């Protein structure tokens, strides 16, 4: 590693979305030397795009408590979520949302001055048939408000930022300790080694894997792929959330907040078709249920438009006042991308890839955990993960809207607290073995080969199309096996890919090639895990195994990169203090 720049910190946080920033803030306030690395300027992280809000049982609009929130989350996740982590999250929610308000998040207000809350999908109707209203919102720009406030608080706490710096891989020693990361400074094209006593992955999701998606260009699952390359597994990768209301043909998100405010879906006959699929919750059933309903309406010929390929989201009846004050960003997106003003007409919508339920296996302290030599699970020393890249698992087989912004602040804080303890025990940096950065350097140098070859852009688009066609909303064994063949063939094509531009300074083509390598790992994890799970649960819907099977499949999937090995681990069905919610039939 001679000649490579080296930096040392107590803690390295990879990712500057809400998860990374909430953790970094806790650490910086405790006067730990903490560095946050982000491949984009921090406030461009995908958290900025979150619209609808963050869940907490504040009970500001209708009576509520954390126990109901817990029940809704367990049921929404189709009983695959770990109930100790879910209890922890739902109990912490009210305090952490108020804390966000104190950090400066400008929540929308009720007339009495309290935080405004709207109903969201999957929230129970416990109140004389009325639905809970649990999602705290700053108009329809909640993530924007949250991310900017957390960034400003970090600047005040003197967190070190390394912006536009791309992490390639973790640095690990012979005994399996994680000692930091190897990165590329995008501006100069120079490599840089970060050493740390604790490394926290907060690199976000991977829904760029699909052709139609709500996700930002940067959501390529980099942290998850790093973990696979370090020989560790990913958990529950078959569970990909398709959001029911992306703008048709484009995928840009129209928040569930629209239906929370009273918007609803109609088919070409003008029918409010959710009455047939979820008689009680209607348009506010959980996302997997609504996405399947839209898909079925279109497949059975009741789609709208000249190609009958979408349905309509109607909200003009809400009136201009509500639309302008509570959904201004949605109105703007609809006008720009669908050429419709929702005050006057409905928005054409269709399901779009949105969220990665699976990810890096962790416990509720944010520690990355993995089975050691096929034995019981243990914490990987020095490594933590939180946010969308992690699988705690609080979302189980299907995440409820508004629970991810909550997940990132709750577990960002919890992981930081555990890191503080860890730093108390590990007072010195362990020596970085010579050669620790060799595999990452080799990955970088592989892209210096020139000459004719495949184009990175073409391979990426082929991958995204294959995932949409062979690992989408509805699945069968044949379709998934064809998906495996297609993705494996693309892995081969990728080996022949070359970069035309070999320059160093701001070479975004090189970054995109490295991101595609990561997406390829995530694609393999997703199709292999999906082909292994022979039941339907949450977002994983198998036409050949239409029922949930709690006897055979109430367990988490683990996928390893080597030999594409699949393993399983039990669901933590015991909460921390309350009685468990045993699996029941899930209806809305
Ligand atoms: C359009 C949209 C709307 C949403 N609305 C809501 C909502 O209303 N409510 C809700 O609860 N959830 C919502 N979600 C989900 C939620 O916003 C995300 O799950 C959550 O914000 C993820 O936060 P994060 O901190 O884990 O990751 P992100 O915010 O995605 O941040 C990832 C960070 O990692 C960095 N990074 C990644 N790879 C590398 C690398 N190789 N090197 C260096 N840095 C790297 C990035 O630069 C970035 O800083 C929405 C999601 C989308 C896409």
From TrEMBL:
It is an enzyme of class 1 (oxidoreductase). The modification Tele-8alpha-FAD histidine is found at residue 46. It catalyses: a quinone + succinate = fumarate + a quinol. Substrate binds at residues 243, 255, 354, 399. Its EC number is 1.3.5.1. Residues 10-405 form the FAD-dependent oxidoreductase 2 FAD-binding domain. Belongs to the FAD-dependent oxidoreductase 2 family. FRD/SDH subfamily. This is Succinate dehydrogenase flavoprotein subunit. It comes from Sulfurifustis variabilis.
